[in-house]
Fold:
Amino acid sequence: MDKFSYDVRVRYAETDRMGVSYYANYLVWFEVARTEYFRALGVNYTEFEKRGIFLPVLSVQCSYFAPTTYDDLLTITTCVNSLKRTSLSFQYRVTRKADGVVVVEGSTVHAFTDSSFKPIRIPDEVLNVVKVALL
Amino acid sequence: MDKFSYDVRVRYAETDRMGVSYYANYLVWFEVARTEYFRALGVNYTEFEKRGIFLPVLSVQCSYFAPTTYDDLLTITTCVNSLKRTSLSFQYRVTRKADGVVVVEGSTVHAFTDSSFKPIRIPDEVLNVVKVALL
Amino acid sequence: MDKFSYDVRVRYAETDRMGVSYYANYLVWFEVARTEYFRALGVNYTEFEKRGIFLPVLSVQCSYFAPTTYDDLLTITTCVNSLKRTSLSFQYRVTRKADGVVVVEGSTVHAFTDSSFKPIRIPDEVLNVVKVALL
Amino acid sequence: MDKFSYDVRVRYAETDRMGVSYYANYLVWFEVARTEYFRALGVNYTEFEKRGIFLPVLSVQCSYFAPTTYDDLLTITTCVNSLKRTSLSFQYRVTRKADGVVVVEGSTVHAFTDSSFKPIRIPDEVLNVVKVALL
Structure:
């Protein structure tokens, strides 16, 4: 598996009074896509945390091309586009399912760390299953 | 001190596409008022957590009388209206500062617990400073 | 259809530093369940809004029996337990899917209103399909 | 005025189970800083919206250098670092007030639009008061 897609439906809580999805919520949906990406690879992120391994975000970039709103079904497509000794990057493309329009694109960079946020080597079970790709 | 008031300004993120503050956000503002209530009493909630003492919510009730929206300045007035061996209750009244209209009233019940959510006796420094009152 | 169930998975964003789901998020999940309840009945809430019909919350009550956390799969079971001329009430029961434990119960009361929040009669297509029940 | 600073205190709701502020919340604090920046310039963003003028986000970039947590007092320093015919950019620096550590830096690009998200020229009252600067 290189690319992975997951659908989320926009909640009323996630809209703002401009009538559209509030911009910070796309970062939440990115997080949902990362969780489900790892699950699809057979890697459960909660297991990492039980072993004291965390994956905090170092940076995020996000471009907004078109608005979405309440009840829209969105497809979040993601892949790992860079894998280093202690960090990795995800790309994201958000598509409005009803019409196929790409509404948002983004990326995040993460470090693997211990519980005190000290970088550690990427765990083998991640290295073994993640396939680097580009959206 | 029996009653305590704290102002919050409605953020864009906290509105929804009905044009008003989303209903769950009042519970966040209740939490802000509780934090500042304890601070005003000289009790810092972060100190409790360092000692393994938590104050999870057992129940919440909230009534909505009028909408608020982006940039509204709201006054959250709160007091402890019940104090028991292992639990206490807060009341809240939310007033729109511009016109004095009461927009929301609510209450929460909390237990003092250890980090595994087992009830414990209310710490003395809370008992010593909290004064039971009614809004 | 009287009772309706819908699953949500707890997002990382929805947890707090106590390690559990933040209490206000259950109100968001109640909203998700209402949306899906209406959809299951063949009524699309976005269609109401296009006609200038809204369903703001008048009050909410919520009791928390056990914590949930990141990646937990939760089942929100809901039903309409009261139907009046201009208002209706929902009940909710939240169950942790892994072990069947009831973690939260709650209820909301809503008014049907126009876009200026003036109460209106419940639309016929709602009256025709909603069946009053108790959880 | 070129640079502007505004303080926010991290709410419990804004932390996650890693024990730190959830990454998307910095975008909410950026929004708070923009609102207060305009207010300090004598420009009330709600007035724009009454005239059908909106300022949606086209892109955001954010780098995370150190974590923050519940009850931390954060200073958001912002300035407009680019001003074009229909768009403008903000820079942000987030400092932990207790120790002066820069925890986050970011930027957003915005377009002035009408209510259907069609770009419009920047309103004169903005052009007249905004001073381009760099953090």
Summary: Residues 25-40 of chain C form the longest helix (16 residues). The helical segments of chain C are 25-40, 45-50, 124-127. Chain C touches chain B at residues 17-18, 20, 23-25, 27-28, 31, 49, 54, 56-64, 67, 117 (CB under 8 Å). Chain C has one domain: 4-127.
